[in-house]
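Section 3.1: Structural characterization of target chains.
Under the original work plan, the team committed to producing a structural model for every single-chain target entering the pipeline before any wet-lab resources were allocated. The record below documents one such target. The sequence was received from the expression subgroup and is listed exactly as submitted; it comprises 335 residues.
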Amino acid sequence: MILRFKNGTPESEVLAVEAEVAHAGGRSIRSDETRRPILAVVDKLPKEVEAKIMARDSVEDRVDPPGAWHQAHRSFRDTPTVVQIGDLRIGEGHPCVIMSGPCSVEGADAVMDNARRVKQAGAHMLRGGAFKPRSSPYAFQGFGVEGLGQLKRAGDAHGLPVISEIMDASLVEAFVEADIDCLQIGARNMQNFTLLKAVARANRPVLLKRGLAATVQEWLSAAEYLMEGGCPDVILCERGIRTFETATRNTLDLTVLPLLREWTHLPIVVDPSHAAGIASLIPVLCRASVAAGADGLTVEMHLNPAEARSDGPQALLPGELKKVVAESRVLSALF
């Protein structure tokens, strides 16, 4: 349960409730919300203890999340979380942030050229995979640690923060040493709890993609792992889910955007590239995502998609990305 105290509740009163919870064998977590004290009690308490706590005049409201996620729940904060990455602010009330670049880091010169075009298009962050989780073991797997350095140097050269996917807990130190600004948890690793715990300790913002067939509650539970591990700056990313449909790569679930606004305070971005898998569909899905309330978009772009070493069919050309950025700015201002 989440206990929301009245504004102006003295600290001694909150500490007294925390002591009651601990005495009953429960654990509590204090929100960093500044408008009022908010306390998440993550263990089931005896009914008499719950009744005693709820009888206090200082407790204004009790909220029971529909799943095993408390810190990610909307009521754990009065104000939405805004994640800062460099000078960018991602979250409610701020312009739509566009993360773009090639699927894979394909070499120092290539990623530098892509970064230049991402910047020229008006996008805000550079994305690229140095470690690539591929369905086939024979497909291009990325340049690894060297790719991280290439990505970061390209981002720095063009004033773009960078984001890249991390696949293994043993790689956290390499990502931190390369100064990757935001760590991405891919769909296949959404419930890799060992990885989530390790990444939470990296002291970096984390973009958490929804799993291939994950429910919203499972997704938010994964976010809770990150937050419980010490990472408050979690960004949720809807990237399409696997359904019976085969005409597109996945099925983009825009229903989750208004639902997540009710269930969580975390910012939400959408990845139409992996949802559609077809470049011609991506611009309209970007427009729909922004209109539905997305705080950002992650869109793949390549100078020559036909020669991309991974996911070329879903990559936009630089001119197409520029148009997506312009349209997103207009729609973001309207919605």
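The chain has eleven helices and 14 strands.
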